[in-house]
Structures are given as structure tokens and as C-alpha cells.
Amino acid sequence: MRLRLAAALALLTATAGCTVAGQAAADDAETVVVGYQSKTINTVTAGTLLRAQAYFEKRLEATGKKYTVKWQDYDTGAPITAQMMAGKIDIGSMGDYPLLINGARGQQSEQTRTKMVAVTGYNLRGALNTVVVAPGSPVTTLAQLRGKVVSTSSGSAAHGLLVQALRKAGVPEAEVKVENQQPPVGASALESGNVDALSQFVAWPGLLVHKGQATVLYDGGELGQPTLHGTVVREAYATENPEVLKAFLQAQLDATKFLWQQPLAAAEIVATNTGLPAEVVYLYNGANGIATFDLSLKPQLRAALATDVPFLTSIGVLQNIDLAAFVDDAPVKEAVGAEYAALESATANQAVIAGTDPVCNKPVQDPATAGELWVFGATGTQPAADPTCLLKAVKSIEATGKKIRAGYVPDAVTGTRWFADKSHWVRDGVQFFPFVTATAAAKYVAAHSGSAKISYAEAVKAS
Length: 463
Hints:
D-Maltodextrin-Binding Protein, domain 2; SsuA/THI5; 19 helices; seven-stranded mixed beta sheet; alpha+beta; signal; single chain; Nitrate ABC transporter, periplasmic protein
């Protein structure tokens, strides 16, 4: 097991730290430096996917001026912020907590000020962050983390999830020892037993669960607090090069629309360029995925940033920030144009599961129940109207000798999309309901007389 995880981590961290790509700048070309996190896959529309499709370069070419783009890949947002403060990165993307730290640090000097100008991916319930434990762990509830050791990245949204979830469960933070570790280190520590749980951001929880190296203890969607990723730019650079920022945001919209229209193809492109399994990328970035991609700076997301500030202040990583000065939607409004108002008012995922369920023979319409199957050898995915229909489809497909590459279902309460075979299932009469955590499944059973927990294999057989 340890060797398998080591191999996976070696693949995932092959580009750890800073890797500069792209051709050397021509003598008459201006260089634009973009910092991104290839494996933080909810920033792909401002990073991995954007780069792979060369959308930014194409938009820059349309300006009539010569530019060379240098892409710098990092594991987290902190080094991107450090490079921006030094004037060495012009445009970057990162998660909500790092964005706030970026803004606060930038506001310490007129020369280093930055602005958040767009959103990449978000989840209004907070499901982009998850707490996991090792398979077979005796820890089955958050309350049981008292006296235990939990790995997380200090100051990240995953750290925020851990603290807020513990508070909600009535567990004082002082009763849990937190180890500040980068995701790959934390994953190894969880496997070796050096920590009892891991609280991390996308795509680590999904990756570890997919590989059978973790199980979910707490679904971030239970918290109900929005989490997001976004695009940030050095204010001085944006002032001097408005056409470059406009081209970047238009290119980000190009990448976003491609992901909406071809989510499976987008996931496979990201998988190829990151070494992540396509099944994991598609869990988050696919149709009805955990992440909703949209550039607009919605009121709900602005409010979430304001709510995040007290936590970051309480742990000593944020002194003060003027959010009104940091969050600026003027550039994205100009770049997107007439489409912006509709984007800002909508919250539904535009990468949707649609079509007709071929097993239950009914239209797939409700994202709260819609599921999806990815069969080995198939060029596309098969929609399912609800979890019960998905189980029936699995049974039918496997009866033909075909293998399921991945199945996706939404949690019956939080709506968090998860792997069907890694979900906790409950049978209630003739219906079957999936849950991301065993605790959530147990709560349902306790509240519904006659219902019972059932394994995935038993659910498929009984469907």
C-alpha cells in the first residue's frame, strides 16, 4: 500500500514548486507571468485547462501586440502570493483563504496592492473541502477527534472547514492537535498512521478515496458555508496593461464555456496535464460536479469572503483587509460584457447531466437526484435520473460483462456529488439513497423507520 501511494504522490508532485514553461520571450515581445496550481483543479479555467487550450495566447494575439506567456506552477497559493509581492507574477489563481491573505499582504504597500477580479470554481455549501480518515479507522465522528492528530494546511480553506466543523460539533480546537502539512505530506502521514485524519481541499480527498486509501469523515457540504477559488492580479500591472487583463479574463471565459459544453473532454485534458485520474477530476469538474465554474463575483461569494476574515484573523494569518478595495468586478464586467448580469444572478451549474435515462426511460432533469455512469470503452457517459435508476443501470451493464469506470451520485441531503461505489447506501422501501458519510446515512436510518444501511454491492443486487 505504501509503495502504491508513494508512486501516486511522485506522479502528483512531479511539478512541485515552481516550473516555468513556454518559449523564451522574443526581443520585441512583452512577457506575462501567470502563477497557477495545476492540481488545485477548481482553478483550471485560469490555469491548467486555460494553458492546455492556449486560450490566453490566442486572446493576446488578437490584441495585435506580441506577448510571451510564462506559466509558473505551484502546489499552493502562498508562493504565488510571495512572487506577486515581489513583482515576479502578474496574474494568479488560488482558493478563498489564500486570496484574502494575498489581498491583505498586498495592501501593506501601494506598490504591492492586488485585486481579486474573477471567480474560477466554487461550491455554495463548502463541499470542495473534506475531512477523511484511513479505511477502517476507529474515528467515525468529528467528536472522536478529541485528543487526536489532524493534518491540514494552515490558513487554507480546508483548515477553516476543520475548525468550523469542530466548533459545530462542540469540540474545542484546543482538544485536537493540528499538524500543518502540505497535502502530499499529509496523505503519507495518514497512510502511515502518524495522523488520525486529514482535512484538505480538492482534489486530495477525492483522490485518496478513489484509490481506496481514505474514507470520508466529514462532507464539507454539511457546513453550508460557500468556498471558492478565484483570479487575482497585481494592481500596478492591471493599470499599466489593461488589455492583457481583459484578454486573460476573456480567455478564462473561453475555458469556462468549454468546460460547460464538454465537461468530460475538459476533465480528460486536465487529467493528462496533471497526472490526476480523470475519474477524480470529473468528480469535481464534471457535469453536475462539486465545483460550479463561473467568473462572476456573486453577492453570496463576496459575503463568504467577509465571513472568512474573522477566522483568518483569529489564527493570526490575517491582520486587516479592505475587502471593498480588494474585490473588483469592473475588469470582468468589461471583459464579459452583456453576459455578465446573467452569470452573476445564476447559481446553477451550467455543466449539466441531461438526456434520457435509458434504464428508467425518463428525462434526467433534477440535479438533486441526477447521476452518471462512465463505462470503460465508452466515448461518453450515461445519465441516470436518480440513484435507484443508477443502481439498476449498473446491474444491467455489469450483466453484459462490461465494467464501470466510475459512477457518480449526489448525497441525498447535501447534494455533494460522490463516487457511487464509495458512498454509504440506505434502502428505504423500493428506493435507495446515497450518502457521502456513514454518519449521514445513520442519521437517515434513525429518522426513517423501516430503512436500513446496505452496502453498494447489496444495493446494486437489490435494485
